[in-house]
Amino acid sequence: MKTFTVLRFNLLLLFILDFSAFHLSAQVTKVDPGILTIDRIFNSKEFSLESAPATRWRKNGAVSISLESGDKGQKFVSNDLNTGMQETIVPEHWLIPQGETKPLNVEDYEFSGNDSKMLIYTNSKKVWRVNSRGDYWVLDLSNRELKKIGGDFLPSTLMFATFSPDGKRVCFVHKNNLYVQDLLDFNITPLTTNGTAKLINGTFDWVYEEELGLRNGFRWSPDSNSVAYWQIDTEGVKDFLITSSSDGPYPKLITFGYPKTGEKNPSAKIGVVSAKGGDTTFLQIPGDSRDHYVAKMDWVDDSVVLQQFNRLQNKNTVMIADPKTGKCNNILVETDKAWVENDNEFLWINKNQNFIWLSERDGWCHAYLVSRSGDKITQITKGNFDVTHIECVDEKNGWLYYMASPDNPTQRYLYRISLKGGDPELLSPKESKGTHAYSISPDATHAVHRFSNFNTPPCAYVIHLPDHKAIKTYTENASFKKKLETIKKVGTEFFKVKIDESIELDGWCIKPPEFDAAKKHPVLFYVYGEPAGQTVLDRWDGKRFLWHAMLAQNGYVVMSVDNRGTPAPKGRDWRKSVYRQIGILASSDQSKALKELLKTHSYMDPSRIAIWGWSGGGSMTLNAMFRYPELYKTGISIAPVPNQRHYDTIYQERYMGLPADNPEGYKNGSPINFAHQLKGKLLLVHGTGDDNCHYLGMETLIDELINHNKQFTMLAYPNRSHSINEGKNTTRHLYDLLTKYLFANN
């Protein structure tokens, strides 16, 4: 039954694609430089952006180091921002290993504390999301010696190599064990020897990396004598299996621990070991280590400071520990009736007697000054707005630099405020409406400034602070902008839609060229809708924007709306309103917004409303199609989570609580439980190698749809991950599929 049904779907899909290809090819024969196409967007370099060089700041803040392209490779250039002088401090030939003819391809780099050496990262391999396993080389700038770290370890097997503060040693991870290599004699000392596939030292398992953003799992002490590190024990965590099926005649199994909601978690401990090796002292962190998360850890003077979340993540306890005895003392406890955000890095000032802390305790996310003992907390920023990010602290002059957007939640601007409080000062140019981002020098006198908005591709400059005067242009993407001017222009606008008297949602809209409001137009909604991201942002959206613009050139109106629960800077209540009702409140808000827009926008054809999304947006698409079948006619769901019970503990339990405590919420928030209500056309897309939102979830959804005799179209991308971008032509193929399906079914 299942095989026969899938065969029917595949034949149907082939017919649709062949018909659509014929239809589109007739259009493409008339070459029009003003019309966007799939090939132009995804299969050419026509719309490739220039990027700013990777930049590091020297300690004085007036000198930056940039990695730039040379004639035969890469080179490092020093830029003195006071004099305007440039100097190549590492030419290409310094990066050629002995016996080789080509320089290293530098992927990342670090200077030692005294700037006498460089640590260069190259030849990397992907581990889950990013390329975090590779080779490391040390370049001595005094004698130009280039030496590889790791001795006889195999290529591309070292992780997170980091200089000691005194620059005399390097610590790294290899096969879940920690090592220190002396840079004088290059001897290697193991700090741990018990690492296995289940016991991980100095780095992380899947769920800690994915949901807490942790990768490098060790920290040097300020005196370079000790290393503090995470030890993750995944014993007892149920394994998930992924079948790799297209690499040969027999499939291979990829196995890794993946704790799903309500299941056993990995445990996390913090150990401290001498950089010379020896026994580890583990901190005496209270509570069951499998029902708590150590989300942050670092040194402050000769103590270790950490943040521990309970399993529900509605309590964050900051502790300071004695690394010799392991004793921990609480200094701050942050709580929330929903969840506490995990966005506080340790920013110490006043000779490490105070730290900066973000909290929503007054209903908005604001910056606070907290004493080391935790007995004094002083609010720095105040008002009905959110601080979205702390950029830096200029302790010498008494300033806190932060990002916010009090008047428009779709934008971001740089502000500064006295550490004593008072009125904030806007530093970003007020005439440059959109999204600003900064990498500020240690002394806060200069920054790399990046800017874009919905219609403007990114530009990057080196600026002086606080006057924001541009000193050097990295890129303005002038040729890209010139290319955009030749494209048949689509209309873009931001709007607000009220779904009741007290709730107003933000949205954007892309309209066809020479838009005729008297005509009916098909509509496509782009959605995400979960606490992990906003879609309604006034910033450049890359090739996705170009694809949406291409659809608009073909007559579509493309829209996006941010429902409640997205991380917009609209206050704590906005963000936390979704607690214990992921998938429920969001899809309700989206449907209400659609109904209101249909009332006020007569050009929207109610019989041709489509919706698409990826990951959480794929789940939102399913909820829209299943729960509101009278509204949405066509859906494209990519890499969704059809059943919330099948997602990981840290993410899903943060927003939904434990399944045993919220069974109805999990049931009603999971689109699979409403699959029987499908009426419209549905395209399902998933990578079979998705380690995040598992292909297994897609298979269970397919079975449920078949059980209710619901017709759909489905395409699986073999061995592709959650991003479905591996392999030749994959991205082009995917967007070609989405386009043709949309044109044929909406």
Question: Which features does this protein show?
Answer:
746 residues; 43 strands; disordered N terminus; single chain; eight-stranded mixed beta sheet; Rossmann fold; alpha+beta; 36% strand; 12 helices; 18% helix; five-stranded antiparallel beta sheet
Topology:
Layout: H1 2-28, H2 38-42, E1 54-57, E2 63-69, E3 74-80, E4 86-90, E5 108-111, E6 117-127, E7 130-140, E8 146-148, E9 158-163, E10 169-174, E11 177-182, E12 188-190, E13 199-201, H3 206-212, E14 218-220, E15 226-233, E16 239-244, E17 252-257, E18 267-274, E19 281-282, E20 292-300, E21 303-310, E22 315-321, E23 328-335, E24 347-349, E25 354-359, E26 366-371, E27 377-379, E28 387-394, E29 399-404, E30 413-418, E31 425-426, E32 435-440, E33 446-453, E34 456-464, E35 469-475, H4 478-485, E36 491-500, E37 503-511, E38 521-527, H5 542-553, E39 557-562, H6 572-576, H7 585-600, E40 604-614, H8 616-627, E41 634-638, H9 649-656, H10 663-669, E42 681-687, H11 695-707, E43 713-717, H12 730-745
Helix pairs in contact: 1-12, 7-8
